[in-house]
Input
Amino acid sequence: MSETSKPKLAIYWAASCGGCDISILALHEKLLDVAANFEIVLWPCVMDFKKSDIEALADGEIAVTLFNGAIRNDENAEWAHLLRRKSQVLVAYGSCAIEGCAPGLANFSDRSQMMRYIFHDAPGTDNPDGIDPQTEVVTEHGDTLTLPAFWNTVRTLNQVVEVDYYLPGCPPEAKWAEAALDAIVAGKLPEKGAVIGLDVTVCDECPRKRSEKKISRFYRPYEIIPDPEICLLDQGLFCAGIATRAGCGALCPLVNRGCEGCYGPNEGVIDGGAKLIAALASVLDAETPEQMDVILDTLPDPAGYFYRFSLAHSVLHRAHLTGKHGTRSVAVLAEAPRLDPKLKD
Ligand code: SF4
Ligand code: SF4
Output
């Protein structure tokens, strides 16, 4: 196939750690097939491309874009809109693009609080004039330098543009990227809106022995040495496997680590954190809400445990800081799943 007759593939990162790109590199020699089957027109992690190259393409000219990372500033959103316009198929690749993941935890705070800490209060910060970052600066030579505006709220890709498929994981296992690209080459894509992966929970993939659970307290991982054969949750170690979509092969439980929930909730679940709370509540050795509270108090960071990956996509979406001392209350936002593209805050 000549380079120009191949379908075009774009891989992009927005608010991302780069791990999703590494997961694609983990295709190893299969990458040669990707290069044989696709013309890679954008992959900033690996090759140098310019935005103008993508702008010059016709709308819909890119066959598929794998988009990783959350949307947390103007630049992320600009690229999301550009790649949506230029792509026939847009895949939200990885937990950040699908649920907000680690960048989405910033929604427990707000922009002014983060800027205050990073540019004024953080140990090692040297900012004697108390200057805040600017989105536009005119240099002494009269040139204007710009930076993307940092949003108050982190958003998922489908809260900004329409998404065709979801490929979960933090990062996704390379085999799912391979499955998605193979399906595109074979023209066998699933129904639009589908999650590419499995429809069972991590518990279904996990070889540990389970019994009827009655958890009377939780332990931190350093507090006990778990039995390698028995379900971690049965031993009082937090494990999100009971309410998390399978697909990783239960990698963390296999090495004595509780599942953290990075593949997100299973099919049909609107709020992964709420589902996890409900699933755990059903296995606590408690008869009353008060007894339940005592057990849950042994979980040191409930918000982090339950919404580590999904806060930005959850019904809660973000925390609101209220009161003169910054007392936190969490507001339920009755907002549409996709926000007005002009909304930037
Ligand atoms: S989903 Fe995980 S691996 Fe991928 S960019 Fe986000 S934090 Fe990194
Ligand atoms: S260790 Fe976790 S994933 Fe494995 S069976 Fe127990 S709860 Fe499920």
